Amino acid sequence: MDFFLDSAETQEISKFHELGMINGVTTNPSLIYKSKKPFRELVTDICAITNGPVSIEVTASSSEKMVEEGFKLAKMASNVVVKLPMTWEGIKACKILSKNKIPVNVTLCFSSTQAILAAKAGATYVSPFIGRLDDSNIDGIELIREIKTIYTNYNFTTKILSASVRTKNHITQSAIAGADIATIPPNLFYDLANHHLTDKGLETFNADWEKSGQKIL
Ligand code: E4P
What we know:
The chain is of the alpha/beta class. The chain has one domain (2-212): TIM Barrel, CATH 3.20.20. Helices cover 53% and strands 17% of the residues. The chain has eleven helices and eight strands. The protein has an eight-stranded parallel beta barrel, surrounded by six helices. α5 (88-99) links the parallel β4 (80-85) and β5 (104-109). Bound molecules: erythose-4-phosphate. Erythose-4-phosphate (E4P) binds at residues 6, 26, 28, 107, 127, 129, 131-132, 163-164, 183.
């Protein structure tokens, strides 16, 4: 399973990149707004930090404008993935951009039928938003399972990018359900390494080693 960082903060992206733990980055207009940086500069900076795919979302609502924006975004860096909303206009734009070999991430996917459309339109990635489904009392992980089964049944090559993840359990369950990638916000990413029993165990080992009076180096 690949991990993307769900962030538009260049400092955070650099930190995780240096750890060698991210395979790409996803952004969205809200994350870009929060970063308070000029758009072009931000995209160029993020795409220079990682060689991995960086999803940047269009903001137009007609397919024609989405295609125009998509071409423009793709020209900003070779690792840009054009993020398109899961609407009919987005699907039309996805077909055109994909035919032109521009990778597309179809975002805001909340159902299996939407995921089928994204795959049929040639999307490189589809992003089911599992946390937002859970927020509405719908099992987000079940959607990942459904999409995985459907994509396997029909040999669709679109990658399942588990998005809107909020908990460690979302990551575990996405992996079990067969998601290709999870895009993870920085705070949750940090927390993936934590376990209270690890801390407790390390404390005991260190205390006992101290008592032994020995040294490795
Ligand atoms: C994914 O590409 C989105 O940027 C993101 O996962 C949305 O997450 P949220 O529901 O926590 O805003």
